[in-house]
Design goal:
The structure holds two protein chains of two kinds.
Chain A (H helix, E strand, L loop, with lengths): L3 E3 L4 E4 L4 E7 L4 E9 L6 E7 L2 E5 L2 E6 L4 E6 L8 E9 L7 E2 L3 E6 L1
Parallel strand pairs in A: 2-11
Antiparallel strand pairs in A: 1-3, 3-8, 4-5, 4-9, 6-7, 7-8, 9-10, 9-11
Chain B lengths: L4 E3 L2 E4 L5 E6 L6 E7 L6 E7 L2 E4 L8 E4 L6 E5 L8 E8 L9 E2 L3 E5 L1
Parallel strand pairs in B: 2-11
Antiparallel strand pairs in B: 1-3, 3-8, 4-5, 4-9, 5-6, 7-8, 9-10, 9-11
Classes of the chains: A mainly beta, B mainly beta.
């Protein structure tokens, strides 16, 4: 079993829809949770960063972490065609070598 | 805005040949990472440097892969000999340090195709 599980999709939604992306994990040592966005043939770019449990909002994006369920989510409101990309969840622990553990990524297409 | 630079962006090679990738991290970033991303999967760490020292290379196939960061700035990842299964995107990332709050910033990657 992989340490981080993510539904690979693909996910296709109409413009303006609310998008929900999710990951589950098995390692209770994970404390930092991130969402990266990766456009085709590009490197991942950091979208959201959350420490421990709770919610964080940035514009149209909201990240949620539920450590009791080992479950994290990213919500995108009023989705735009420019949001079409692969979204990768990533996480790491408090100590150690700062290694990031990634999900497989969910490919999202927002249809105009 | 400072960025992680990588070259080449694309590399096509035949199996058994040697290939090398270069990475220049964001200025002032002490920690440098090399990841491999197979199509349809998330990146997986190959090797991590703190300055010029290797912090973690437990996932680096050392029989054919090598990495160095001689002066603690830029870094080179080498594969010799390349195999068909090495076809992937090779990503370089850097961060200020090893603290959990230190964000990793990724370069554009080198897409390797082994024929």
């Amino acid at each position: 079993q992989k340490e981080v599980e993510q539904d690979p999709g693909p996910l296709s939604v109409p413009e303006g829809a609310i998008v929900s992306l999710n990951c589950t994990y098995s390692n209770s040592a994970f404390q930092y949770f991130m969402w990266y966005r990766q456009y085709s043939r590009k490197g991942p770019e950091l979208l959201m960063y959350t420490y421990s449990s709770g919610n964080k909002e940035d514009g149209r994006f909201t990240a949620q972490v539920d450590k009791s369920s080992k479950y994290i989510s990213l919500f995108i409101r009023d989705s735009q065609p420019s949001d079409s990309a692969t979204y990768l969840c990533a996480m790491k622990g408090l100590t150690g070598a700062n290694n990031l553990f990634f999900g497989t990524g969910t490919r999202l297409t927002v249809i105009p | 805005e400072a960025e992680v630079a990588q070259s080449p962006r694309y590399k096509i090679t035949e199996k058994s040949q040697a290939v090398a990738f270069w990475c220049d991290p964001i200025s002032g970033h002490a920690t440098l990472y090399w990841y491999r991303q197979i199509l349809g999967q998330g990146p997986e760490l190959l090797v991590q440097f703190q300055d010029e020292s290797v912090v973690d290379d437990s996932q680096l196939p050392k029989d054919r892969f090598s990495a160095e960061r001689l002066k603690g700035v830029d870094s080179t990842l080498k594969i010799q000999p390349a195999e068909l299964g090495d076809s992937a995107m090779y990503l370089c990332a850097s961060s200020l340090g090893l603290a959990g709050t230190d964000t990793q910033y990724f370069g554009p990657g080198t897409r390797l195709t082994v024929l």
